[in-house]
Specification:
This protein is 71% helix and 0% strand. The protein has 11 helices and no strands. The radius of gyration is 22 Å and the shape is globular.
Length: 238
């Protein structure tokens, strides 16, 4: 209970959000982009705004027919491999240290940055060679990715980290659990960002992708439970 009471100041943002949403519902007031869409909907226009000047939800943009499922799998596999190589590199694997020792004494902050960088390079080269995305489009996706993930981390971490630290939870365990939670959110219908990315690359409707994603989300949740309740999975090499 004392931990909960001390954590209340960190929850002001979340509490204010709830209060604001309830107040807007009761007072029937809208503002900003939400107000624009509400006004348009009352006039029978569900899609048109100043930034989206078309009268229907169709034709969100050209779809590249070259996109295939492997264009989603290869970047993920490359990222995992590059991050593992980056970790063991910082641990001295290429200087003669065995794999397990190199992984356990690696510098994660450096290894993951190196792995992410080379994974990004491989992805950009893959898309350019296959003509799925141009170099300019690839560069435009980078800030969009930051805008999708960083706000959640910046908002949730200051709220949750003091709580988990107070109850004795390892911050590394918490960080892995939090990132996995966010990753699941990115593929969860109806607004998972990665669903829209997959749809644009493969020319498959989002609803169809969402239907086939549901079993995978179930597997993700099982993995999340294992990560949450078996700390050794995250901390075995520390």
């Amino acid at each position: 209970m004392s931990v909960f009471v001390r954590a209340i100041p960190y929850n002001y943002y979340a509490l204010l959000t709830i209060v604001m949403m309830v107040s807007m519902v009761l007072m029937k007031e809208e503002f900003g982009a939400m107000g624009v869409h509400e006004s348009n909907a009352l006039k029978g226009d569900l899609f048109t705004t100043a930034a989206r000047p078309y009268a229907s939800g169709e034709g969100d943009g050209p779809v590249n027919p070259r996109g295939k499922v492997m264009d989603l799998l290869i970047p993920i596999i490359s990222l995992v491999i590059c991050c593992v190589i980056g970790m063991i590199y910082t641990g001295g694997f290429f200087s003669g240290t065995d794999f397990v020792t190199a992984f356990s004494q690696s510098d994660a902050s450096v290894g993951l940055v190196l792995g992410s960088f080379f994974g990004l390079v491989i992805t950009i080269l893959l898309y350019m060679v296959r003509r799925v995305l141009s170099f300019r489009d690839c560069m435009a996706c980078i800030p969009e990715g930051f805008k999708s993930m960083v706000p959640a981390i910046l908002i949730l971490t200051p709220i949750l980290l003091p709580i988990v630290t107070a109850v004795g939870m390892n911050p590394i365990h918490f960080g892995i659990m939090m990132v996995v939670n966010l990753a699941i959110g990115f593929v969860t219908p109806p607004i998972g960002v990665n669903l829209f990315v997959a749809s644009s690359l493969t020319d498959i409707p989002i609803m169809r992708i969402s239907k086939h994603a549901m079993p995978m989300i179930g597997y993700f949740l099982v993995a999340l439970l294992l990560i949450t309740f078996i700390p050794a999975i995250s901390l075995a090499l520390i």
